[in-house]
Design a protein that fits this description.
Oligomer: heterodimer
Number of helices of chain B: 12
Order of helices and strands of chain A: HHHHHH
Number of domains of chain A: 2
Radius of gyration of chain A: 21 Å
Helix content of chain A: over 70%
Number of strands of chain B: 0
Largest interface: A-B, 73 and 108 residues
Strand content of chain B: under 5%
Structural class of chain A: mainly alpha
Chain lengths: 120, 232
């Protein structure tokens, strides 16, 4: 628990430092995630050291959104004023994202498999 | 109300309220098995009226429960571990996965911003909408950076997750996608954890790939949002 928390916070801190260096272009937490991934991938950090803390907090992540989510009560007016724009933008864009990602991945996968057959 | 407020307007009570209403949300969600009834949504539906009735200001509530908000940062970092765990499912597909998610991210951001703009949305609203497809903690920090409203973004992310989770499988069937990797990747890229929950119902590989997509989409979007600001 303490060990895992230390490593998570250490990588969070390193991410924040890096974020400052690039003038906040990417949030520190995202950079911390990338750094932690790289440390695990290149075997600099033993996955066992962060496993239990990382799985615990990611499994229960949704509860951390509550304080931000409740903030919606302050913006009820703004949301109802722009409801059409919000709903149209979210639904169309989400559908487009699903279609784009699925089709590109499927095409590229097929192409790769064909290529493999040719090489053999 | 005036008499009881001093007893409930503190960290201990409000944190217990958050945990309690979320716990209730989990029970309702599991019992009903309705995608729309997300624990987060149920918790919000309990807490918001509660604060209105008792007259506790949002800012006060936020200050008393800020430890939960702080935890968003470490949980994003912890996603690095989840990403690492899912690497084995990727094997020879690294390049295609990165390409598909990158293009998906570009299409998602541009379309959401331009459609909102066409309907007369202002800069704040566009900045709050732009990171809608990524997992909430990343989305919130991105919204903050570009002048959006974190609370709005949190709500949009949930709406986006619920919508994608509901219609995603239907869309994938309609366009005839067969690849399990493509299905999981699309669900996770568009609808983060809620999409992943639905992808898991399709199969274990779809679920794992969808989980991977959450992380990659988060990184891609974080890289692209600063450029998207030009569209606002």
């Amino acid at each position: 628990m303490v060990k895992g928390s230390f490593y998570i916070l250490l990588f969070y801190f390193l991410g924040e430092l890096l974020s400052k260096l690039i003038h906040g272009f990417i949030p520190g937490s995202v950079l911390g995630m990338i750094l932690l991934f790289l440390a695990l991938f290149f075997k600099i950090l033993d996955p066992g050291k962060v496993r239990s803390v990382a799985t615990t907090i990611t499994k229960n992540m949704a509860v951390f959104f509550v304080p931000a989510g409740v903030g919606l009560m302050v913006y009820a007016e703004l949301v109802s004023n722009s409801l059409v724009a919000i709903v149209a933008a979210i639904t169309v864009s989400t559908a487009l994202t699903i279609i784009t990602v699925a089709l590109i991945q499927e095409r590229l996968e097929k192409r790769r498999k064909k290529g493999e057959v040719k090489h053999e | 109300m005036e008499q009881i407020r001093p007893y409930i307007n503190n960290e201990v009570f409000l944190l217990a309220l958050v945990m309690g209403s979320f716990y209730l949300g989990i029970i309702v969600y599991k019992k009903t098995n309705i995608t729309l009834l997300q624990p987060l949504l149920i918790a919000m539906l309990i807490i918001i009226p509660f604060l209105k009735i008792t007259g506790i200001e949002y800012q006060t509530f936020y200050n008393h429960t800020r430890i939960l908000n702080f935890m968003l940062g470490p949980s994003v970092v912890a996603l690095g571990y989840v990403l690492y765990e899912q690497m084995e499912h990727v094997k020879g597909n690294v390049l295609s996965i990165l390409t598909a998610v990158f293009v998906g991210s570009v299409v998602g951001i541009i379309s959401v911003v331009l459609i909102a703009k066409a309907f007369g949305a202002d800069k704040v609203l566009m900045a709050s909408l732009a990171p809608k497809s990524v997992t909430t903690p990343i989305a919130i920090s991105l919204a903050e950076k570009t002048g959006g409203i974190p609370a709005l973004t949190a709500a949009f992310v949930v709406v986006c997750g619920i919508f994608g989770g509901l219609v995603g499988p239907v869309i994938l069937r309609k366009i005839g996608v067969k690849s399990k990797i493509a299905k999981g990747l699309a669900m996770g890229s568009a609808s983060h954890a809620l999409g992943t929950a639905r992808a898991l119902e399709m199969g274990a590989l779809e679920g794992a790939i969808s989980g991977l997509a959450i992380g990659i989409m988060g990184i891609m979007t974080a890289l692209l949002i600063p450029f998207a600001e030009m569209l606002f």
